[in-house]
Amino acid sequence: MADIFDVIADPTRRDILKVLLDRNSDDSQSVGEISVSEIVARLELSQPTVSKHLKVLREASLVAVREEGQHRYYRLDPTPLEAVEDWVIPFTASDIDASAITAQLAEETREFASTVGKVLADTRRRVERVTPKKWRRD
């Protein structure tokens, strides 16, 4: 499988992804699918060129295809782009105070752990009240 960065480096593939994204966000269309012929018409490219690029996008799991007779309908699957997002964010998020986020997460983690501990302790007390002593593992 090609590296996701190599796949999205090609401007034609980015154009195809944009067409799929536009279809995906268009509420009037069903399931965000678009046929190859519609992509060809929108981008004014040849069908073999579009098919070649769709194959690369399919192999990178950026698109899913549904076959209906001789027709192919494509839809966007943005999941693989999360790797790109993870790589780009540190370069674009320079105004974020990492120490403040870390402190906030630590506080939330402590609160969560405290809540879980209280729930577990309460559950154990309830079980002890209803479980006969001879069945308990103390």
Automatic annotation (TrEMBL):
SUPFAM superfamilies hit by this protein: Winged helix' DNA-binding domain
* Pfam families to which the protein is assigned, alphabetical: HTH_20
Alphabetically sorted, this entry's keywords are: DNA-binding, Transcription, Transcription regulation
Query: Which is an annotated GO molecular function term of this record?
Result: DNA binding
Instruction: Name the InterPro entries for this protein.
Output: ArsR-like_HTH (IPR011991), HTH_ArsR_DNA-bd_dom (IPR001845), HTH_MetalResp_TranReg (IPR051081), WH-like_DNA-bd_sf (IPR036388), WH_DNA-bd_sf (IPR036390)
CDD domains for the chain: HTH_ARSR
> Where's the HTH arsR-type domain?
1-96
Per its UniProt record, what Gene3D superfamilies does this chain match?
Winged helix-like DNA-binding domain superfamily/Winged helix DNA-binding domain (1.10.10.10)
User: SMART domains from the entry?
Assistant: HTH_ARSR
Task: State whether keyword DNA-binding applies.
Answer: yes
Q: What is this protein called?
A: Metalloregulator ArsR/SmtB family transcription factor
Instruction: Name its species.
Output: Leifsonia sp. NPDC080035
